[in-house]
Specification:
The complex is a heterodimer of chains A (about 280) and B (about 160).
Chain A: H1 11-15, E1 20-27, H2 30-34, E2 47-51, E3 54-60, H3 70-91, E4 95-96, E5 102-103, H4 106-116, H5 118-128, E6 132-140, H6 142-152, H7 154-164, H8 168-204, E7 207-212, E8 227-234, H9 236-249, E9 255-263, E10 272-273
Antiparallel strand pairs in A: 1-3, 1-4, 1-5, 2-3, 6-8, 6-9, 7-8
Chain B: H1 13-23, E1 27-28, H2 37-58, H3 69-82, H4 99-110, H5 113-117, H6 121-132, H7 136-152
Helix pairs in contact in B: 1-2, 2-6
């Protein structure tokens, strides 16, 4: 589709793509659409493209956003994010797209895509209705954890005793065994803690996704303790129920809790949607 | 029963935004999509840049070189913990008002954060590595002057 010299930067050539940058899909609401006034990435005016009972929020854009400047990209992300939230305020919980999703073929291609995926999108909107995404991150203080674990564990008590009257050489070995045992216990404790968190969150919310133990964007040099992270999909009551639960665990094993949201339900959006069928992107450049 | 913990958006929220917008959300697998692959690349570059950026802003770019890293880390942990306390900060309205944005902009305007990232991927990546390693605070705190010197002195 894209010709060899698509990187040439000829503006008239790229504009033949007739691209649309996608923010989210919402239930069609013609009244709300009449007074729709939201701006998107870099202040771009957003429009609604509707097909059947669905509307996609878009702006005209042919090329993906790309920059080496951190602050620039960060601002784009915030722009995208707040646009989706503004839309959600008016139209209800949206099905959000990933950043920088651009299709070619103009409004027509967007309509065709909405039609082709109407069932999936309608189901998703129903499931998400009235709910938003929240993020739960629990980090246990390693030292507090170790203190607790060493109190309880017989094996460690035994190693401690041996350490007390060991010679220097033996002490070294015993210490190693001791450290290994502590690591085992910490890992095990994280696992059981994480499993019970998962269970408790599931009991209180519509859906839970475990996110693994480390954020992909580490903000401090090293995670200082074992961590468990979740995304939950919750309505207002469920949100408070999670809050109450988190309050009860906030001090266990020196746990610190991060609870953020509401976010558009990016994590709970349908994975991937089908192609439009062979509409064709229009005449070649 | 105490008040429930209210979700909020502390200054770590940029990390959430990055993760949500770049890893999650609907992906279209169709030939109508312009450059699917590039988003991934953007994500990698951005993460690298943001990791260093956030580290810098979290530490306020004010620490004199030789600051005790452990103390800084402990302080940042305490800050995280504080965001949990039930009472404060029920910023629940999804109004998209990111308090930290201004704060962050202010930091980035005055500092060398941009400058250090100007060199392209290579630089960003090494930035991140150094941010993850030891002694990044002194590096961070020097950024302002260092960058100016670099740019003026023709770092090419």
């Amino acid at each position: 589709m894209s010709s060899d010299d698509s990187g040439g930067g000829d503006e008239s050539a790229s504009s033949t793509r007739n691209g649309r940058y996608l923010y989210c899909v919402v239930r069609r609401d013609d009244d709300a659409a009449a007074s729709f006034d939201v701006s998107g990435v870099d202040g771009a005016p957003l429009t609604l493209v509707s097909a059947g009972g669905l509307s996609a929020v878009v702006h005209d854009r042919d090329e993906p956003y790309e920059s080496d400047e951190t602050t620039q990209v960060r601002d784009w992300l915030y722009d995208h994010q707040s646009a989706v939230e503004r839309v959600g305020e008016t139209f209800g919980t949206p099905v959000p797209f990933r950043f920088d999703t651009i299709v070619r073929g103009g409004d027509e291609a967007v309509r065709a895509w909405l039609d082709a995926n109407a069932e999936t999108l309608n189901e998703a909107l129903t499931a998400l209705d009235g709910r938003w995404e929240y993020r739960v991150e629990v980090e246990w203080d390693r030292e507090a954890l170790v203190d607790r674990l060493t109190e309880d564990d017989e094996r460690l008590a035994e190693l401690d005793d041996r350490l007390a009257d060991a010679s220097e050489g033996t002490a070294f070995l015993v210490e190693k065994q001791y450290d290994r045992r502590v690591s085992e216990l910490v890992t095990e404790r994280r696992r059981t803690r994480s499993a019970s968190l998962d269970e408790e969150l599931r009991r209180r919310t519509a859906e839970v996704v475990e996110l693994g133990d480390a954020p992909q964007t580490p903000l401090t040099e090293t995670p200082s303790g074992p961590t468990a992270r979740f995304a939950v999909l919750a309505d207002d009551d469920e949100r408070d129920a999670v809050g109450s639960y988190l309050d009860t665990i906030a001090d266990e094993d020196g746990a610190s809790v991060r609870y953020t949201g509401p976010w558009p339900p990016y994590t709970f959006a349908p994975d991937a949607c089908a192609p439009t069928g062979e509409d064709g992107p229009g005449p070649a450049e | 029963m105490p008040d429930p913990v209210r979700p909020g958006r502390d200054s770590d929220s940029l990390a959430d935004v990055v993760e949500l917008l770049l890893d999650k959300g609907v992906v279209i697998n169709a030939d109508i999509v312009v450059s699917v692959g590039e988003t991934e690349l953007l994500g990698i570059k951005l993460r690298a840049a943001i990791a260093s950026f956030e580290t810098a802003s979290e530490y306020g770019l004010e620490f004199p070189s030789g600051t005790d890293m452990e103390a800084v880390e402990a302080a940042s942990d305490r800050r995280r913990e504080r965001s949990v306390t039930p009472a404060a900060n029920p910023e629940l309205s999804p109004s998209g008002d990111f308090a930290e944005r201004d704060e962050a902009s202010a930091v980035s305007d005055g500092d060398g954060g941009d400058g250090t990232n100007d060199g392209g991927d290579g630089d960003q990546r090494s930035d991140r590595e150094s941010a993850n390693g030891d002694g990044d605070v002194s590096e961070t705190s020097k950024e302002g002057e260092a960058t100016e010197a670099e740019t003026d002195g023709g770092g090419e």
